[in-house]
From TrEMBL:
The gene is potA. SUPFAM superfamilies: MOP-like, P-loop containing nucleoside triphosphate hydrolases. The keyword ATP-binding applies. This is Spermidine/putrescine import ATP-binding protein PotA. Its EC number is 7.6.2.11. InterPro entries: AAA+_ATPase, ABC_SmlMolc_Importer, ABC_transporter-like_ATP-bd, ABC_transporter-like_CS, Mo/tungstate-bd_C_term_dom, P-loop_NTPase, PotA-like, Transp-assoc_OB_typ2. The lineage of its organism: Bacteria, Pseudomonadati, Pseudomonadota, Alphaproteobacteria, Hyphomicrobiales. It comes from the Bacteria. It catalyses: ATP + H2O + polyamine-[polyamine-binding protein]Side 1 = ADP + phosphate + polyamineSide 2 + [polyamine-binding protein]Side 1. SMART domains: AAA. It comes from Aquamicrobium soli.
Length: 373
């Protein structure tokens, strides 16, 4: 098998995507993306359907050629190198297994293509199956397997030849919730064991937050933010990311008012919320967009606490087992969702009830309204 020379593997960057764009005729699938992927990291591409995730992955794997820009793996420009010489293992969005072949033959396929000798194929295929907890299942036909098992075969097939980079295109999206959670753990486990640089694609923000070292949020072929999960959740850089990551309320546009050290936000209908923090990067009298998570709004209790107490009316409840999402209407602030522990609020405050709520702005995301991306 012919590979790239082994020099240049010492750097921290496993895959370097530099100014890459992809057009399909008039459709701009990927606009202009630069993304250095660190060696050994679990990186997730996250974004809504059609934002260019699969296209970017296909360009890393070599199944699509960029319209512009370059892709390097281990310091070698592979932009014009065919897929089977790139050392990338891929799990496709739709399994793309060979349904009539056995599990073993599916896994061995890539090794046979690479003309590896028979004994080695047997050894490595079994090792890969063992890695995904399918040892001894090599003789089964793929169509006799469950969805989760098929997904493991696809994984085994992607890792069997020891790729430098593992590319996973929504590998868990077809699985039911329990199986999906289990496979999430197993994927992380596999990543820990192999240390493989992994690029994982999902449009499920919860999955991205729980699995990733870093998350790349994409929209319309462009990167919006690259951050660690916690930072992405607590400090989204623009309204797209704020709305896409986790549940969040966007308040109506407000005017920021400074008075000495204190900062307040003035809404329509004379409603004012006092800010926490100085928001030094925002000008006095500027228009701001404020995002508040449902867990930052609670029923105002007898004892005080940080935050602003406002009067509202209950619109509806959605019981979710551990908590209830209660939708309230607040003059000046519109409809807001709040998250209340347990389910007692459903009987205590039926729809239509007046309710005093406390809105904490401690973790609110405050962005410039005009010109904000
Ligand atoms: N072969 C193609 N020919 C023409 N347009 C394409 C082709 N492949 C993708 N596109 C377009 O490029 C854009 C990005 O598609 P892509 O498949 O990369 O999105 P995605 O983020 O993977 O979406 P999903 O979450 O639905 O899988 C879309 O507008 C899509 O219609
Ligand atoms: Mg896709």
């Amino acid at each position: 098998m012919s590979t790239q020379p082994a020099t240049g593997q010492q750097g921290d960057i496993a895959v370097d995507i530099a100014n890459v764009a992809k057009n399909y005729g008039a459709v701009v699938a990927v606009k202009q993306v630069s993304l250095p992927i660190r060696r050994g990291e679990f990186l997730t591409l996250l974004g809504p359907s059609g934002c260019g995730k699969t296209t970017l992955l296909n360009m890393i794997a070599g199944f699509e050629a960029p319209t512009a820009g370059t892709i390097s793996i281990d310091g070698h420009d592979v932009t014009n190198v065919p897929p089977h010489l790139r050392d990338t293992g891929m799990v496709f969005q739709n399994y793309a297994l060979f349904p009539h072949m056995t599990v073993f033959d599916n896994v061995a396929f890539g090794l046979r293509m690479r003309k590896v000798d028979k004994q080695k194929i047997a050894r490595e295929a079994e090792a890969a199956l063992d890695m995904v907890k399918l040892s001894g299942m090599g003789g089964r036909r793929v169509k006799q397997l469950s969805g989760g098992q098929q997904q493991r075969v696809a994984l085994a097939r992607a890792i069997v030849f020891g790729p430098k980079v593992l590319l996973l295109d929504e590998p868990l999206s077809a699985l039911d919730k329990n199986l999906r959670t289990q496979m999430q753990f197993e994927l992380k486990d596999l990543h820990r064991k192999t240390g493989l640089t992994t690029v994982f694609v999902t449009h499920d923000q919860g999955e991205a937050l729980s699995m990733s070292d870093r998350i790349v949020v994409m929209s319309k072929g462009e990167i919006q933010q690259i951050s660690k999960p916690l930072e992405l959740y607590s400090r989204p850089v623009n309204s797209f990311v704020a709305s896409f990551i986790g549940e969040i309320n966007q308040l109506p546009v407000a005017r920021l008012k400074r008075s000495g050290q204190a900062v307040a936000f003035a809404f329509q209908e004379g409603v004012t919320l006092e800010a926490e923090g100085d928001h030094a990067h925002l000008d006095d009298n500027s228009d701001v967009s404020i995002f508040v998570r449902p867990e930052s709004i609670d029923v105002a209790g007898v004892q005080g606490g940080p935050g602003n107490v406002v009067k509202a009316k209950v619109v509806s409840h959605i019981y979710q087992g551990t908590h209830t999402v209660t939708r309230i209407e607040t003059p000046g602030l519109g409809l807001l969702d709040m998250r209340v522990g347990g389910g007692h609020i459903i009987d205590q405050k039926p729809a239509g009830s007046p309710i005093d709520v406390r809105i904490s702005l401690e973790n609110a995301v405050v962005l410039k309204a005009s010109g904000a991306k």
